[in-house]
Amino acid sequence: MTPDDLRRWQSEMDLTYTTAAQALGVGRQTYSDWLNSRAGIPGPVDLACAALVEHLAPYSARDHRSDS
Predict the structure, then answer these.
(1) In sequence order, which residues have a C-beta less than 8 Å from that of residue 29 and are 6 or more positions away?
(2) Rounded to an integer, what distance in angstroms lies between the CA atom of residue 47 and that of residue 53?
(3) Cβ within 8 Å of residue 48, ≥6 positions away
């Protein structure tokens, strides 16, 4: 994921700078670093963005069923 991809995601999700950082569970400075290429964007951020687009609940909040 590139900074431009992250900006596009933020725009498509209609999130502010602050709400985008909150949605990804990071601070404003970390989000700023990602957007300004001062820090690499970790691979899992791409997955988190995709999950948020699909409105997926966090894994821990899902109904876990045993197959046994």
Answers:
(1) none
(2) 10
(3) 24, 25
Q: What is the pLDDT along the chain (68 residues), one digit of tens a residue?
A: 999 999 999 999 999 999 999 999 999 999 999 999 888 899 999 999 999 999 988 777 666 665 54
Q: How far apart are CA 65 and CA 45, in angstroms?
A: 27
pLDDT score recorded for residue 59: 79
Contacts of 27 (CB under 8 A, 6+ apart): 21
Contact predicate 46/1, CB 8 Å: yes
What angle do helix axes 3-12 and 28-35 make, rounded to 10 degrees? 120
Tokens of 27: 């601070």
